[in-house]
Batch of 2 targets.
Target 1
Amino acid sequence: MNTSKIVALAITSVICLSSKAQEPNVMTINNKPISKSEFEAVYRKNNGKEVSTNAKSVNEYVDLFSLFKSKVFEAESMGLDTLTSFKTELAGYRRQLAAPYLTDKNTNENLLTEVYERMKSEVRASHILFRVDETALPKDTLEAWTRAHITRNATLGKLPTAAEIANYDKLLKNTQEVAKTLKGKDSSLYKAKFNAVKNLAEYYKNATDKFQDIAPKTSDDPSALDNKGDLNYFTAMNMVYPFENAAYNTKVGEVSPVIRTKFGYHILKVYDKRAYRGEMFAAHIMSKFAKDATEQDKANAKTKIDELYAKLKAGGNFEDLARQFSDDKQTSDRGGQLQPFKSGRLPKSFEDAAFALKANNDYSEPVLTTYGWHIIKRLDLKTLAPFAEAKNDLKTQVTRDSRSQMGRTALIERIKKENNFKETLKNRDELCKAMDTTYLKATWKADKVAKLGNKEIFNLAGKSYTQNEFAKFLETQMTFRSPTDVNELTKGMYKTWVEECIVNYEDTQLEKKYADFRNLLREYRDGILLFDLTDQKVWSKAVKDTTGLKEYYEKNKTNFMWDERADVSTYKCLNDKVAKELRKLLKEKKEEKDIVAALNKTSQLNVAVENVTYLKGENKNVDANWKQGIADKDIKDEKENKVLVLVVNKISPKSPKTLPECRGLVTADYQNYLEKEWLTYLKNKYKVTVNNEVLSTIK
């Protein structure tokens, strides 16, 4: 939104409507009644809690309010509230306003407190992933959960029995993907998953760390092959919410229960918990060696970092040494400055050394990582801000995080209870069974199940939601899908439909339930109308009406004057010798380009020229030589170490600016003129009649 629109909306933020039946009217505008409560809300909102009761103050608000309402009525009379662009913009604002009301506020407040408390500490954990899609069929979900459960038991020493392995084998062969690959004579996926369970006893026997050594052989997370599932240290908001919950709720040294996230099932083991270290701002000097470096290469890197460390100890400048000698070319130009980092982002030895530095500008001894040697300088350390300061930022983060769904879930449950939610699932199941595979090909039509009738599936607030409505929803969600059980798929989509219907119902009730929402939406509505109307009548008109602008300029051009000004050429000479040669050429009345060419024959650094028009007071050197011709004396420019020769080419007297020279100022004045004319028109068109008896009762 542009600035003008923001101003328009800010103006309208004083309007709060709260109509009541049979209440007195404080005024009429062209016979349209304005209630006392509407005017009083404006008056009180503008004055805050303490409201002045003097008659002058009230009467001033009568004028302000009646003028504003006149503008709104004028916009409506022009049909601006019926335009598609207006409706679209208002709908967008409404969605933004509605969002905080379509979640449970108590849940959200608790989430803010929880995330802040968790941010005070860091957890180090390893995990094993058993991947399964969120929309997977029950049989696929059961396979992944069973594999996770068996693996968890194995990490704790409870190895799978032959019966458990045989049962898992049946589940695995029944899954959609494995059954499909086996049918195609490809057993690689089956073998990989089955062996991960079958060989758990062997993995356990040969493992030193019973969790991390098993992880690479059982996890569906490919990074486990390198890191054994180790996620390093993390804090709140770094992981998806269910995973974060498990990490913070599991004691050090213990393995979590099997948990579900959008990625699948997980088990995790917590290895450590410590206080939050903060966010480190640091720089480093690096002496790098390659992964395949020889011992001599590593020795050379160590020698180099020791030499640089000695230079620092002898008083050398860290940033200068980083620019000259650091092998990290991405940071050397910035004096070694790194992007800010928290725990778990960089090699452990690097982080430990950085966070061990006690004060800004302290630097470490040489530190070894897998990338080479480093000297680390602490620039700043950002610790956790107080809750009051962090709250707004946390709100934004929580809104974007998966935990925000908890507020929506709590809202849905509350609305169900408040509005007597009832389900008839047999009617849902009847529709689901009637679905066919054309749905997977995105060719299905809702009328295919119309023959079932229109039985109620659920009821909310006395309104019936039927099979036909669910079928239409399914049609809107249709997309090409891989072969799957259509009956189970549509049952899964039923939950989404119910939740959308419940939230949409609550959305329709917001104006009735919440006066603040109703009033604020009215403010936005009137603000958009006011902006669009003013844009038509004043802002855009002043820009587009070129004829009117020219006429206004001609009538008022003496308001847009140039003061006396000097057109000056400033020759910047390398030294006194060049300045002397320049003056000689000026006296010979040589052209500027010829002078520059002649003087720069031996060096392009001898002279440069600037041509500027100055008003008095803009340049003290020009002010001291305010007459046409060559300045009598050279000027020493200490800053640039140059000798300046000024030539005042012309002194122009006071004169009107041309329209192109002052178009912005003229346009602004013309807008003010148009607005005054328009306000006069509105006051003449809209007759205001005040009920002083009612007005006097406003306290």
Target 2
Amino acid sequence: MIRDHARIEDYALLGDLHTAALVSRTGSIDWLCLPRFESSACFAALLGEESAGHWTLAPVTGGSVSHREYVDDSLVLRNHWDGPDGAVDVLELMPPRGDTADLVRIVRGVRGRVAMRSELVPRFDYGSVVPWVVGRGRDVRAVAGPDALWLNSDVPVDVDESVITADFTVGEGEEVAFVLTHRPAHSRETEATKAHRALRETQTFWADWIARCRYEGRWQQEVRRSLLTLKALTYAPTGGMVAAATTSLPEELGGVRNWDYRYCWLRDATFTLQALLGTGYVAEAKAWREWLVRAVAGDPAKLQIMYSVDGRRRMPELELDWLSGYAGSRPVREGNAAAGQFQLDVWGEVLDGLHLARESGADAEETAWDLQLALLDWLEGHWDEPDNGLWEVRGPRRHFVHSKVLAWAGVDRAVHSVEDHGLDGPVDRWRELRDRIHAEVCEHGFDTDRGTFTQFYGSSGLDAALLLLPRVGFLPWDDDRVRGTVDAVQRELCHEGLLRRYDPEADGGTDGLPGSEGAFLACSFWLVDALAGIGRTAEAEHLFERLLDLRNDVGLLSEEYDPVARRQLGNVPQSFSHVGLVNSARMLGGASTRTSSSRAHQRLHGG
């Protein structure tokens, strides 16, 4: 296990729009994949022993930071230690990517004189490869296979068995800088990045980016921090956004629900577009939409639920058996086999996202409609098949209600594309199909005795995704079936006031996996939206404030939360959680999160 059993919320995020690093409250960078989010890690102590790779920079006396914060609205982290011998700041940053990937750490003396130690343990391929370290003085190089890390330091360093250390003292007003640079092992050495110039340029980049934010409602600081986090999870060359920066952080401590989230999920598209467009980030929304179009191009029958940041389709799931796992949670996985699952809702999610882009004016790709026609043609022939559902359950396929509703949504958006934008398509056939799906879901997916929609046809269980039915326009918020479903989901899936995705024990075990998991934070934000939608605003705001309190001290949220142990669970930072925060803040402020026209409600429900 990693030292001090650091909690997931003990980590802060650094990023350069290509990859991300996690730095703990003890000043240790325990996770960094290079050169991209889904590349193998050169620091993997997060998922194993210290020997799996880390870089600690802290006072010799050790301990946790006295205080830490991001400098203004940026991704420059300031770690502050205050001890008996004095006080010191460490500024941590990854400059937005240029020719190389750089990790910059600047030590500043604040008071007295503080003895400091840097211990750099580079290990490639998730800790399995010990590099050859060469050099002396203030410049060393760690090389193995295709990778090389170059350390440039203001103070001399020592090398002992591939561990690079530096001991030094910093006084008030003094500074010591370290720059760690990744480049291909075959490349020639170039001039080292200047730490202070990188600091200025990084601060300017983030200041300029956040200045474009157009959110003016309540919770401005919380929304801005979440938007910065979402930007940090974006792969700049393509516009794709990863679900999280990590792999295999457990949904249950010591359990097996440990997945690789360093990929782009199509399901996140509409929610992400809502968050970006609703806060003024049209360029980012366009880039995400264009990534979406490129990724899903091709045979609609081979649409995947996730892709690599560059649109690559293959991501075979492997177990890294030399790593002990976070807090002993094994296996540690690279890749994600869920990419090969049939999840019907994804076709609807893509069509919904592309429709939202068109409605907002972010649609600039002429081929998008041809792609949507192909997706619709496939959906028309397969919507009535059972699938694995949006939660990627590894049990049997079912007729999941949310999946059918998203199929309905995909067809509904096609109808509106013809009616509202003059595009060409068999609109009469689509209207009939839309009505047929709607009628089937209401007949087979609604439990009249309990007054609620169910997880799948004939199920006794519920699903937090049922809260999205009015959000996509399937039924209006004031429909009794919606209110009954909100009440039932809140009653049966809430644990200590927070929402689980579903009950894994219902119907004899739906997901085919042992163990359980924590409350899913994105679902809890959906409950905020649902409560607000049915008019229970005070209750919605109370839950929203509680969710804000679950963020760590620098505003980050993971995938899940254990309300009993009071700690974060799952991969971090989780884009779905931060998207949920932004969209819930917008909804509580009066912004619509519905992506369909109200005319659909009027036609379907006699309005």
